[in-house]
Amino acid sequence: MSIPVLLRMMRDRLSWQLQPREPEPELVMHSAAQTQAFAQAGEDNGVLAFLYLYNAVQISSVLQPGDRVLDLACGPANQLLQVARLNPQAQFVGLDASPTMLRCAQDAVAQVAPGNVALLQGDMTRLAPFADASVDVVTCTMSLHHLPDLAALQATMREVRRVLKPRGRLYLIDFGRLKRRSTQRFFADDLRLSAQFTNDYFNSLRAAFSVQELSSAVALTGQPVSCHATALIPFMVVLCSAPQHAMDAATRQRAEAAFAALTPEHQRNFRNIAGWFRSGGYSLPCQLG
Ligand SMILES: C[S@@+](CC[C@H](N)C(=O)[O-])C[C@H]1O[C@@H](n2cnc3c(N)ncnc32)[C@H](O)[C@@H]1O
Questions:
Q1: Which domain holds residue 131?
Q2: For residue 211, is it within any domain?
Q3: Band of the pLDDT at 142, cuts 50, 70, 90?
């Protein structure tokens, strides 16, 4: 981590101010421009490639063969497909409220044809299409901040409790609320892709829930879940069940191949995010690269 980044983080950590949460201007991502910008960021070797692989590896360690997995707010499904490719023995349903996003996701699924991914339009605060105790694992990546308020976050967690089987598992990751607007601006400007993406990213950081809000809400799932934030400042927060197992050889081989396919810059970013979480007490189930 460079000295300017470290200084920026220390300034945020020591700050007395705490910016209030500002909900996303577009909660459900209906806009074609937003959908396209986000889908582009999630392409193989798009700016989010390192994060998608990081999540896929962490999610793999809570999955079991035969699991039914519900991915809340799957968006264009790049992340979902990455997890599904690493775990061909599990079945996945991606849910999103935006028909625009789902059309994009459908195209991506059709192109990859993994055979274990279905998509559904729906609202994560009301999981009516899913019966009680019908899902083994719930995942949700970079989407909880799209909920309008704390009540919607709590409603989502109560629904997660209802649809999860008694020994169900969770992996949720999102931004945490940073204290200073200037830190949010700094991180948004750091991932340069397009003006649309930078603006959406800044809005996401402003809409992030605090670590306290996320961990209190996840307690409503009734599952034993631990909360891990990146070291020094909660740039990202993971709420997850304890790993079920070490990564098996076949999954590990697929993860290693995915890591090898990343550009050197994304491999560096992968190591950075893994190191940042590890310093916050959350390690990978296996070393890659
Ligand atoms: C930033 S994208 C993240 C997509 C994906 N999970 C990923 O990591 O790439 C957020 C997604 O949440 C969806 N969304 C927002 N509110 C929702 C809700 N109440 N129910 C379901 N999806 C929602 C948006 O339409 C959008 O596709």
A1: 3-279
A2: yes
A3: very high
Identify the residues whose C-beta falls under 6 Å from ligand 1: 27-29, 38, 42, 73-75, 78-79, 96-98, 101, 123-125, 141-143, 146
Domain count, the chain: 1
How would you label 203-242 residue by residue, b for 16+ Cβ within 10 Å and e otherwise?
A: bbbbbbbbbebbbbbbebbebebebbbbbebbbbbbbbbe
Specify if 226 maps to a domain: yes
Whole-number Å distance between alpha carbons of 178 and 17: 10
Is this prediction's pTM over 0.90?
yes
Mutate to test the pocket of ligand 1, among 28, 150, 200 (most ligand atoms within 8 A of CB): 28
Question: Residue with the nearest Cα to atom 8 of ligand 1?
Answer: 141
Distance 260 CA to ligand 1 centre (A): 28
Sign of CA dihedral 74, 77, 78, 84: positive
CATH at residue 160: 3.40.50.150
Residue 65 lies in a domain: yes
Is 80 exceeded by the pLDDT of residue 149?
yes
Q: Are 72 and 101 in contact (CB under 8 A)?
A: no
**Residue 218 pLDDT grade (very low, low, confident, very high; cuts 50, 70, 90):** very high
Q: Which residue has the tokens 């997660």?
A: 160
Q: What percent of the chain has pLDDT over 90?
A: 78
The residue whose CA has the least distance to atom 12 of ligand 1 is: 73
pLDDT at 118 over 90: yes
Q: How far is the CA of 117 from the centre of ligand 1 (A)?
A: 17
The pLDDT tens digits of the residues spanning 45-87 come to 888 999 999 999 999 999 999 999 999 999 999 999 999 999 9
